[in-house]
Amino acid sequence: MAKILIIDDEAPIRASLREILEYEGYQVQEAENGMEGVRLATKFAYDVIFCDIKMPEMDGMEVLDALSEKLIKTCVVMISGHGTVEAAVQSLKKGAYDFIQKPLDLNRILLTVRHALEQGELVKETERLNRKIQTERSTAIVGNSSAIVEIVEMICTVAPTDARVLITGGNGTGKELVARQLHELSTRHDAPFIEVNCAAIPSELIESELFGHEKGSFTSAIKQRKGKFEQAEGGTLFLDEIGDMSPSAQAKVLRALQENKIIRVGGEKEIPVNVRIVAATNKDLRSEIQSGQFREDLFHRLAVILLHVPALNERRSDIPVLVQHFLEGICEQHGKVLMEVTSEAMKHLEQANWTGNIRELRNVVERMVILTPKGEKISGKLVKQFGGLSE
C-alpha cells in the first residue's frame, strides 16, 4: 500500500485530500506545517508528498530545499491557491514532480498520484539495475588462487550477519572490493554503502565528516549537515585507512559503536544510528596499539572478523585472469576491440614486482591498451618498454 504525506496549514484541504486518497486505498499522514512535514519525511518513507506552497514559518519552497538537503527523493507534488507560471517553474526547478492549483480537481489528483508512483518505481528499478551493473563491474573479486577462494568463502559466510569486519592488506590489494562485496551480499544491500577515507580527511574535519555538525558549530558551518553515520543509516559504513584516524575521532567512533548513538559536532542531542561497520587498514594495528597510536578497545570492537587480502606478489597465479578481466573492461571503456596478450608479454607481467598490487596491474593494462597499435597484440617488447615494471 502506497504511503502519502500531505503538508498543508489548512485543515479543510488536508481533510478533503485525505478523504480522496484513502478512498482509493492509499495510506495517508498529515502535517500542519512545513517543519512537521520535513520531520515526518525524514522519519518515514513516503511514496508521494503533497505540499502547499504558501505556509507560515516554512513555506513549500523551503520544504523542497530541506528535503533535497536530506537526500529524500520522494516525488513531491506542490499545491497552491495562488498558482502562477513563475511559482510552478520555480518549484519544478527545485525538484518538485508536479504543480497543481487549488481548488483541487479529483481526477487530476488521482492521475498525478498514479504517474508519481510509476515514476518512483521506475527510479527504484533504474537504481537497482545500475547498482547491479556497478557491482558486477567494480566489486568482482577475480582470481582462483587458494587465498582468494578462502576470502570469497569467508565473505559469503560473514556477509549475511551484522558482524563488524576489519580488512587488512597493502595499498591497492582490493580491500574496498571486499567491503563492497560484504555489503552487496548482506541483508542491508538495498541501503547505502558509504565510504570514508580516514587518511584523506584532515584530523580537524574528520569528526564533522563522520558525525555531522550543527549550524554555527564552527566558522564555516553555515547550515546543519548530516555526517556519514547518518547517511549510511540502515546500510554499511566503510571506514577505509582507519589506522590514520585521529585519537579524538577514535574515541567518538568507539562510543558510537558501543551505544549506537552519535552527537553532531556542536550539538547536544543523541541521534540513534543503525549501521554496519566495515573497516580497513594497510597498517599493523597491533604495532600501532603498542606505540599508543591506536586504541586497543576500538581495535577489538572493529575486529570481530579479520580478513587479510594478500599482496599480488603472493598470488601470481591470478595475474592472467586479472589481466583478461581488466582487458575486457578497459577495451570496452575505450571503444576498442578486445585485445590479446602474447605469451612473452604475460610472462613479463607474471614475473614483475607488483609493489602497487592490483591497482598497479590495472594501470599497466590500461597503458598497454592505449599504446598498442590498432589490430596488434600486446607484446612483450611494449610491456618491457612502457610498462614501467620492476622485476
Output the keywords:
391 residues; alpha/beta; Rossmann fold; Helicase, Ruva Protein, domain 3; 5-stranded parallel sheet; 16 helices; 14% strand
Describe the protein.
The chain is 47% helix and 14% strand. With 391 residues, the protein is an alpha/beta fold. The protein folds into 3 domains: 122 residues, Rossmann fold (3-Layer(aba) Sandwich); 172 residues, P-loop containing nucleotide triphosphate hydrolases (Rossmann fold), CATH 3.40.50.300; 74 residues, Helicase, Ruva Protein, domain 3, CATH 1.10.8. The strands form 3 sheets. A 5-stranded parallel beta sheet has the order 2-1-3-4-5, with helices on both faces. Strands 7-8-11-6-12 form a 5-stranded parallel beta sheet. Helix 2 packs parallel to helix 3.
Sheet with most strands: strand arrangement = 2-1-3-4-5
Q: In CATH, what is the homologous superfamily of the largest domain?
A: P-loop containing nucleotide triphosphate hydrolases
Count of the domains = 3
Question: Any idea of the CATH class of the largest domain?
Answer: Alpha Beta
Uncertain stretches of 5 or more adjacent residues: 135-139
